[in-house]
Write a structure and sequence with these properties.
Length: 161
C-alpha cells in the first residue's frame, strides 16, 4: 500500500464515521423521538462538514490533498468538541437556548428551511439533555469528534512522511 493510500483510508473512515453519526442522530430522532436542540443540529452540520472536508483527500489521493483535508477535519473536529462541551456545560443548564450562536448559524445558512428533517431544532437545550446508554448524548458526539481529530492527525502525519 502506498503512502498516499493509507491517509486516504483514514479519511474514508472519518467520512463514514461522520455520516454514521448523522444517521444515528436521525434514527434516534425519528424512532426514539429524541428531538434535537440547536446545538445538536449544529453538531450534525459539523459532522456533515467533516465528511465533505474528507472528500478532496479521498478524490485526489495526493499527499497535499490528504494533508489539507486532514487539517480542515482537525479544525472542524475541534469546533465539534467545543459545540458538544458548550451544549453540555452551558446550553443544557440555561433557561433558553433560543437565538444562540447555533441558532444563528443554522438559520443564517437557511438549512432549517432547506432540510428541516435534518437541520431543524425541535427542542430546547434543557429538553434535549438526554442520556444514551448512560452517557449524555452530546458526550457521544464529543467522543466521535475526538476520534476523528485523532484519525485526521494520523492522516496528516502519514501524508507528510
Amino acid at each position: 500500500m502506498t503512502a498516499a493510500k493509507r491517509p486516504a483510508a483514514l479519511l474514508a473512515a472519518i467520512a463514514v464515521l461522520s455520516l454514521a453519526a448523522v444517521a444515528a442522530a436521525l434514527w434516534t430522532q425519528h424512532v426514539w423521538d429524541m428531538q434535537p436542540c440547536p446545538w445538536c443540529v449544529l453538531q450534525r452540520l459539523i459532522f456533515v462538514s467533516i465528511a465533505l472536508a474528507a472528500l478532496p483527500g479521498l478524490l485526489l489521493r495526493s499527499r497535499m490533498g490528504c494533508g489539507i483535508s486532514a487539517i480542515v477535519v482537525i479544525a472542524l473536529s475541534l469546533a465539534g468538541v467545543a459545540a458538544a462541551l458548550w451544549q453540555h456545560f452551558v446550553a443544557a443548564v440555561s433557561a433558553s437556548c433560543n437565538q444562540t450562536l447555533a441558532d444563528q448559524i443554522i438559520s443564517g445558512l437557511k438549512l432549517d428551511g432547506l432540510l428541516p428533517e435534518v437541520f431543524q431544532a425541535r427542542a430546547s437545550c434543557a429538553d434535549a439533555a438526554v442520556k444514551l446508554a448512560g452517557l449524555p448524548y452530546e458526550f457521544w458526539s464529543l467522543a466521535l469528534f475526538v476520534l476523528m481529530a485523532t484519525l485526521a492527525l494520523f492522516t496528516l502525519i502519514r501524508s507528510r512522511v
